[in-house]
């Protein structure tokens, strides 16, 4: 582990459609750069997507603090729970191909779920829709025991380990009655994708999303991340200093829940698809269904703000009267956010390689920077004229 004070060199690039100095994007890029520097985030990238391409980007700081290697267009970030949106796209693809219905009982495809204790009725109460909307009653954390030793796996690495937990798992509320963010629910969705397609989750996503979109440098954590060139290191920042995190973790059986790694431009291709649609990948009507509210959600549990609804593997939020859809990510020092503004068919993707928190100053956090970048983009590009 490494502790160091952070003296950031800020590198901001405005490309592909950037307008003259002093325009809206220049102000957004300034907010991004200034706040990253103020808070002590080691490195960050931001890309705004419009008309199916990267219209603007901003890159700040370092992908590796020890070598002072700067963040650039090649830098690979870990996207954590944004992976869940890929899982949602895959489930809807299988639905559109007639392989499943969203209101099917999940136990139809994963019979091991009969081992879960449901005090509210039979196992068949939990549907695929409940799993996608975090309303199944499943607990939040994947592995609630251990994990505090250096030799413990980062996550359960095999399906058998997950199955072994099921007899010790109970539903916390009547399925469909309320919202509670659940990582195990998404692991079950990943299992359904594998069983119905005959492919490992990673292979299915590569064949059905990465390849059609041209996401040629995207991969999952089961690859040897520490051997990948241009991969960003990750850090945790506190009032006491900055600590580098392990970056060779294996997301194991939780890969469908948070295992994605990719450079910014690959993710921008994905944002363009979510914003504009591509019937060769997913019907526009199915994409709209993915972004349809299912149940009221909570701030900080996948979505952000006081007005947030869970969609299908996505969140619908309102900020200053502007509706956005998207998903956040948070794992092992990496913080990220994806947002789409459907009326303008534009969106953005942001990544930070340092999870900063502070007991002294609520503004000195990575999430506060993330919020400030979002609000700046809303104000410059998406706010309703008055």
Please name the defining characteristics of this protein.
alpha+beta; 386 residues; nine-stranded antiparallel β-sheet; 10 helices; disordered N terminus; 16 strands; four-stranded mixed β-sheet
Which helices and strands appear, and what pairs or packs with what?
Elements: E1 3-4, H1 24-39, E2 43-50, E3 53-64, E4 69-70, E5 76-80, H2 83-96, H3 128-132, H4 159-165, H5 183-197, H6 201-213, E6 219-220, E7 235-238, E8 241-244, H7 255-258, E9 260-263, H8 264-276, H9 284-290, E10 295-296, E11 308-310, E12 315-319, E13 322-331, E14 334-341, E15 346-352, E16 354-356, H10 366-382
Parallel strand pairs: 7-16
Antiparallel strand pairs: 1-8, 2-3, 2-15, 3-4, 5-9, 6-9, 7-8, 10-11, 11-12, 12-13, 13-14, 14-15
Helix pairs in contact: 1-10, 2-5, 2-6
Would you kindly provide a written description of the structure presented here, covering whatever features stand out?
By secondary structure, the chain is of the alpha+beta class. 29% of the residues lie in helices and 21% in strands. The protein is built from ten helices and 16 strands. It has helices at residues 24-39, 83-96, 128-132, 159-165, 183-197, 201-213, 255-258, 264-276, 284-290, 366-382; strands at residues 3-4, 43-50, 53-64, 69-70, 76-80, 219-220, 235-238, 241-244, 260-263, 295-296, 308-310, 315-319, 322-331, 334-341, 346-352, 354-356. The protein has a nine-stranded antiparallel beta sheet, sandwiched between helices. Strand 13 and strand 14 form a beta hairpin. The longest helix is centred in the C-terminal third of the chain and has 17 residues, at 366-382. The radius of gyration is 20 Å and the shape is globular.
